[in-house]
Amino acid sequence: xxxxxxxxxxxxxxxxxxxxxxxxxxxxxxxxxxxxxxxxxxxxxxxxxxxxxxxxxxxxxxxxxxxxxxxxxxxxxxxxxxxxxxxxxxxxxxxxxxxxxxxxxxxxxxxxxxxxxxxxxxxxxxxxxxxxxxxxxxxxxxxxxxxxxxxxxxxxxxxxxxxxxxxxxxxxxxxxxxxxxxxxxxxxxxxxxxxxxxxxxxxxxxxxxxxxxxxxxxxxxxxxxxxxxxxxxxxxxxxxxxxxxxxxxxxxxxxxxxxxxxxxxxxxxxxxxxxxxxxxxxxxxxxxxxxxxxxxxxxxxxxxxxxxxxxxxxxxxxxxxxxxxxxxxxxxxxxxxxxxxxxxxxxxxxxxxxxxxxxxxxxxxxxxxxxxxxxxxxxxxxxxxxxxxxxxxxxxxxxxxxxxxxxxxxxxxxxxxxxxxxxxxxxxxxxxxxxxxxxxxxxxxxxxxxxxxxxxxxxxxxxxxxxxxxxxxxxxxxxxxxxxxxxxxxxxxxxxxxxxxxxxxxxxxxxxxxxxxxxxxxxxxxxxxxxxxxxxxxxxxxxxxxxxxxxxxxxxxxxxxxxxxxxxxxxxxxxxxxxxxxxxxxxxxxxxxxxxxxxxxxxxxxxxxxxxxxxxxxxxxxxxxxxxxxxxxxxxxxxxxxxxxxxxxxxxxxxxxxxxxxxxxxxxxxxxxxxxxxxxxxxxxxxxxxxxxxxxxxx
Length: 699
What we know:
The chain is of the alpha+beta class. Helix content is 47%, strand content 14%.
């Protein structure tokens, strides 16, 4: 992970044969038990069951790698359904050529294949056995090398950046202490890696953090969603058009992943040459099955994911019921629809990400950045350290172990870096605590009825839309009809009606007062004339608004610009003059940390900062802060652990002595690591290609 690995031949490892014998024994037992209740399967005795299990194992080891070379495109196109059917055929043939065993139909064989996957998944999961078979890795390796860039110097070590979305450094340290991330804990205890924290920007959410980390700039990203008066349009970070606009404004062609790198499951590309499931690239880049073929290379992949998905649905329904029964607070309403969405996020997207990262390593990509979103999604609804949230974190930890072990067998030496883009804070939502939303509070104070501008809080819908668009093809009418998706440009948009409200937001755009929420950060836009209203203008139009906000128990402070006194952070008992540093009364920024004034003043200078930026109240004694959205765990503003992500990196890498503040500073550090490893040549080649394309005549 942090030095050139020794490439090992799995056939020479005793562990491989022990694993094989164990797998065959479990398969034989499954066949015997299945024959007792499955009418289409007939087995004479245990001896013949063992023979049949060996036949299935050999068929999967020998026949499947040959078959998948031809069937892979169809398997990808059908989201693995064709692979499931092919696996059923292999099991059917293997059983019927075994003496003393007979299966009377293909569908019975398909059921047997599914049962074999269930037992293998459950038993290997309970015993903690690595589920990467060597023959399966070899299939990935051969396919990946076909798409490798032969001009890259594989003597230069690569870096795999693996992001755990939304995990705070203090939460990770407690998880290490309590044994919830044994793989990452082992790296630290063995001395191969160091763990350091950093502080993100006031907009403590993915678009601001990833733009800073991957492109080196997150200027003028005031929140997850905002309104631009001069254009009369909303920008929503996880919408394909919004993400593409964010990248257009911040990319200079020299991003972290320039020079042959890969972006997997991110919001922006970092100028990567290879992208999949990256929201900003969804409309601009064609689908390339080679980017995620690894997920479908294993005959049991889709079966396994289906089994684990069903388990996760059950886990979510149980966790939700227990929260209600035990009256655990804070909590939000969850339902069956969310349990399905959670299973896709926690299981399917994680498994696809793992296999895609492994494929990139075998293809020799010089640098990769991949986001694992399961923890963030579950923490939003369950809480940042509830038992089911930590179970998701344990699954990600196991996944990183698989990636590290696979990367150790790649032809290029790789370093593994694990990091987060922001943390999460927790608290009772603003509406639950105070009986009204921030939007209602603002409208009441302004004396207007602005309607309700609703955006669904579930970021996972955007991830699912990206998967549907890339894997299935945005122009596939059958797929669109089957998923009941909607179109946004060339993208399939799944999920609730908030996307339709966004695309047809003319009525809302014409509203006099618009209120948007980004976790514990609220944005209030007043009027339609371009430019930001001053405090004096706001007081003239809406004389009670600022007073009502700062007097509210749920509001920590309000950022507003005065024509006479400049940028002000105003709280119930005091004012912080941001430009001079002068304090009147009690400093409203004091509970939010020593860098709060720096963050707020920087945001005040953004062209698209809201007329009023409202940060929720934070209680340093309990560490709680309430969201303006219906989320238990949340991020987007100042206050608590949402501001404190982490980087877990090889111990020999450098780290600044001074505190690291802002995502842009993290970009500088990561670029420095690539420079130290010798990646400058690859990056210059990338820039030369970019310049050549820009200079080429337009036909």
